[in-house]
Fold this sequence. Notes:
The chain has 527 residues and is α/β, with parallel strands linked by helices. The protein has 15 helices and 28 strands. The strands form seven sheets. The chain has a nine-stranded mixed beta sheet, sandwiched between helices. A five-stranded parallel beta sheet has the order 5-4-6-7-8, sandwiched between helices. Strands 19, 20, 21, 22 and 23 form a five-stranded antiparallel beta sheet that branches. Strand 27, helix 14 and strand 28 (492-496) form a beta-alpha-beta unit. Helix 1 packs across helix 8, helix 2 (37-55) packs across helix 3 (71-83) and helix 7 packs across helix 8. The longest helix is centred in the N-terminal third of the chain and has 19 residues, at 37-55.
Amino acid sequence: MKRVSNRVMNLAHFLEQSARRLPDSPGLIWGEAEWNWAALDIRVNAMATILADSYGVRKGDRIVVQSPNCNQLLESAFACWRLGAIWVPANFRGIPEDLAWIVESSGASGLIIDADYAGHASHCADNLQFIISIGTSGFAADYDTLISDPAGLTVPLADVEYDDPCWLFYTSGTTGNPKAGVLTHGQMAFVINNHLSDLIPGTSEQDASIAVAPLSHGAGLHAVLQVARGAATVLPASVRFDAAEIWQLIARWRVSNLFTVPTILKMLVEHPAVDQVDHSSLRHVIYAGAPMYRADQLFALNKLGPVLVQYFGLGEVTGAITVLRPDQHEAGTGAAIREGSCGMARTGMQVQVQDDAGQEVAPGNTGEFCVAGPAVFAGYWNNAEANAKAFRNGWFRTGDVGHMDAEGFFYLTGRQSDMYISGGSNIYPREIEEKILLHPAVSEVAIFGLPDEKWGEVGVAVCVVKSGGEIEPSALRDWLLPKLASYKVPKKFVFWEALPKSGYGKITKKLVRAEYERRLTGEDADR
């Protein structure tokens, strides 16, 4: 029998619920500023009304937002959802061209942007109907001024169905151009319940979380979990990572859960402040986005106790593929300790390891991780070619390879693509290679990732200089920095006379990596 109705709850109702039930309880804390749930709901209602009445935003419209973490960034999501509009957050570390691509590819009508990014705004202004500035600027109306008198500014929740988009989650593709994963109201409702069940069970208004990563991506989803449960979210005042400040805030607000990546977790537990504050309130320290060395896990366990939660999940599956619970991290002996595992399939999700024909392989055999279930996104925005490649027989193909053991625990061992993960960010070499090849002295380049204890992986760029050309590694890096977000710039640049090629004359990363490792054993990898 087909569904009688596809109508679902509008995600903005989570904020309404917390404001009704816990009006005076803290909802968001940023430095010394604090908003209770009622105040947040009033501000969101006011901004939603301004967007609708002053700028004509309607259901289905896309609104791009670029800003470091702040209250307005989180508010903008709920304001968009309230109208049935689609929130399109951009990585604030991106360069103007990155933002311009997101505006163009999403077909956005408006932009909400931090006042410090005037250059970014001007780069894409011609493709927008309006711009709102977070903070006083000379190029747009100020966000807080627009809602300075919120009395009476309220709009009803838009009616939404299961497949109505709410969030375009941009995730890089192998071509170098980011692709927009479509997250929907119905899918997100499942994901939120799944995360609450599998990652932070028992969370309530008695809890608090701290955001140590940009709200534009995974940390934003984690903040929505707190809204759903009435738990406060704490934002550090510093834009740059400050371990001492984070530990002080954890102690001050009795933080019980946080989401981060292995690199940041390693920095946190290795900082002296971890031994100087009371962090006994922490129950769930969640990390994802990259593998974590077992030695680093053990060090963190020694500092924090049995609170680590690992999950494996791409943006396209909204983080919900596998989970490794705190008891499965514990040091010691016993069947519960599975070194190198990324955990079990998430509640309500099915994960298979499949061969190239789409058939499930036996436990212990290597194949591609494929996923089915309500957490899988609706597909890529206006990208039929990418959708055709990403799905097979209804399964989403992750592009990651590994195996499953006899008890259903999964182990990642590699990637089908050339993508590598550095500091929790997915890095795709093609985009960087295209930039480097614009340098007049470079004729060929191949970039790949190598293991790194601090960042998980770092990029190595092997370059060939044109005949008669000359450039030093530091000079090439300096030339590249303004053209890319800093986290994408390779850690190391080396120069060879030629790159190894396949029998078809193609440059293949496998051959380049093998040659690099061969030269490295001879201590001449730079030549």
